[in-house]
Amino acid sequence: MSQPEEATGPSSGRGFSTGDLARVSVFAALIAVLGLPGALNVFGNAVPITLQTFGVMLAGAILGTWRAALAVAVLLVLVAAGLPLLAGGRGGLGVFVGPSAGFLIGWLPGAAVTGWIVERGGRNPSVAWLLTACLVGGVGVIYLLGIPVQAAITGASLGHAALLSLGFLPGDAIKAVFAALVVRGTQRAYPDAVPAVHRERLKAAGRR
């Protein structure tokens, strides 16, 4: 009996198969597409509100730790190369020294932490577990990096930068809830979309 395609395809990195790399590419593209509606600045904050963090949450919850991190890394490399893939058509190295640089860089560990938590939810993570993962990784981790960097770049106090970021919370909470529901529905329809299931298949195939 032949092994499933995902277990037998050519691999690279941490055992990434061609199927894995295709999923990574799709989610990198998804995060980029979610920037098309544009960005919104509120309460005089230089850091814009975008839909792209929703894509970061989806990537983490569906791809798991390493594939999600790779998807975000691919996007950030393309942005650094000058492609206008961020909301508002932004791109280039300049975005990594602007007020939103910390939030942008925080997407990578944010996606990874989201995936790490979801992986520990087992083969059938609940909506509450997925929501927790999205809030901790897709909101908390990103804020943890974004707020101090914003304060350092703008010269504002840490408290003032944190206060400005409160304007993001309602929208980010809504994105986290919506992401948890979308991911749960996807995982019910496609059990292989559960990161823990993917990990088990890799172990069964003898790949680490």
The CATH topology assignment is: Arp2/3 complex 21 kDa subunit ARPC3
Succession of helices and strands:
HEEHHHHHHHH
Portion in beta strands: under 5%
Largest sheet: 2 strands, antiparallel
Low-confidence stretches: 1-13
| Structural class by SSE content | mainly alpha
- Oligomer class: single chain
Number of strands: 2
Count of helical stretches: 9
Termini separation (Å)?
22 Å
Rg: 17 Å
Task: Give the total of domains.
Answer: 1
In short:
This protein is mainly alpha-helical and 208 residues long.
Write the layout of secondary structure elements.
Layout: H1 5-8, E1 11-12, E2 16-17, H2 18-33, H3 52-63, H4 65-80, H5 101-119, H6 127-154, H7 158-165, H8 169-189, H9 195-204
Antiparallel strand pairs: 1-2
Helix pairs in contact: 2-3, 2-4, 3-4, 3-5, 3-6, 3-8, 4-5, 5-6, 6-7, 6-8
GO molecular function: biotin transmembrane transporter activity
Organism: Streptosporangium carneum
Protein name: Biotin transporter
Describe the structure.
This protein has 208 residues and is mostly helical. The protein has one domain (14-200): Arp2/3 complex 21 kDa subunit ARPC3, CATH 1.10.1760.20. Helix content is 64%, strand content 2%. Strands 1-2 form a two-stranded antiparallel sheet. Strand 1 (11-12) and strand 2 form a beta hairpin. The chain crosses the membrane at residues 21-40, 68-87, 93-118, 127-149, 161-183. It is a multi-pass membrane protein. It is found in: Cell membrane. This is Biotin transporter.
